[in-house]
């Protein structure tokens, strides 16, 4: 039943993607198209955009790859954290806080174009479709766990883009050693909703033959090591 619901939701997703018109969709300061929600009410539903409110800090000279006036920060309770447009690997730092690297501003515009690689429409749609599919799958299987149909489940809420983008940047031959909030990598590589369900329910088609806890996925075919849960 859970797999049937997920497949129906994905078919609905494909239909709605086509209805939103040609790519690229315009990015406003508040929303992108939200699937499953009428165009007049885009303030709720899957994939709504949430952002920290950044304040512009005027600077005289460009800093860390950002144009003058583009430097922004988040005012956390413990202090301000600046955004920077240049990535640096810091084995050690005497600074109280390490800056946050990003390449898009609050309106979805490119900050550091020399490090930005534009993807094709087809790849962008596939990535977006996989992110929404992952969220739909999480919703259905999490509710199944709360109903007592499966014993254990953790979602990837808020980590969909990290899952899919990192998987898209790898080749199919790259070996992945995951933790249990990264099923999007498997989804991207072709693991089906039925295969996810087989593992969660521990049925006879589960590759681990029911010997692993739910969400401890693994696939030799997709170069994805079985998830391990060390217990201290």
What does this structure look like?
This protein has 232 residues and is an alpha+beta fold. Among the domains are: 54 residues, no CATH class; 82 residues, no CATH class. 30% of the residues lie in helices and 6% in strands. It has 5 helices and 4 strands. The protein has a 4-stranded mixed sheet with strand order 1-2-3-4, with no helix packed on it. The protein is globular and about 55 Å long. The two termini are 36 Å apart. About 20% of the residues have low confidence. Pfam families: E1_dh. Keywords: Oxidoreductase. This is Dehydrogenase E1 component domain-containing protein.
SSE blueprint:
Elements: H1 2-19, E1 55-56, E2 72-76, E3 79-84, E4 100-101, H2 121-146, H3 160-169, H4 183-189, H5 193-201
Parallel strand pairs: 3-4
Antiparallel strand pairs: 1-2, 2-3
Keywords: Oxidoreductase
Protein name: Dehydrogenase E1 component domain-containing protein
Organism: Triticum turgidum subsp. durum (Durum wheat)
């Amino acid at each position: 039943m859970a797999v049937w619901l997920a497949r129906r939701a994905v078919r609905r997703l494909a239909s709605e993607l086509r209805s939103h018109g040609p790519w690229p969709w315009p990015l406003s300061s508040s929303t992108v198209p939200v699937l499953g929600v009428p165009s007049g009410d885009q303030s709720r539903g899957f994939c709504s955009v949430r952002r920290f409110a950044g304040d512009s800090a005027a600077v005289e000279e460009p800093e860390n790859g950002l144009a003058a006036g583009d430097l922004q920060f988040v005012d956390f309770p413990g202090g301000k954290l600046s955004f920077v447009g240049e990535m640096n690997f810091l084995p050690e730092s005497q600074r109280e806080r390490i800056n946050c690297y990003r390449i898009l501003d609050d309106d979805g515009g490119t900050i550091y174009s020399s490090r930005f690689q534009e993807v094709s429409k087809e790849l962008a749609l596939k990535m977006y479709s996989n992110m929404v599919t992952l969220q739909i799958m999480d919703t259905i299987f999490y509710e199944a766990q709360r109903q007592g149909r499966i014993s254990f489940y953790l979602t990837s809420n808020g980590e969909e883009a990290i899952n899919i983008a990192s998987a898209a940047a790898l080749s199919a031959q790259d070996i992945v050693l995951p933790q249990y909030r990264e099923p999007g990598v498997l989804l991207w590589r072709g693991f089906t909703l039925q295969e996810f369900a087989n593992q969660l329910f521990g049925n006879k088609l589960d590759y681990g033959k029911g010997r692993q806890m739910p969400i401890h996925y693994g696939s030799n075919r997709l170069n994805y090591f079985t998830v391990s849960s060390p217990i201290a």
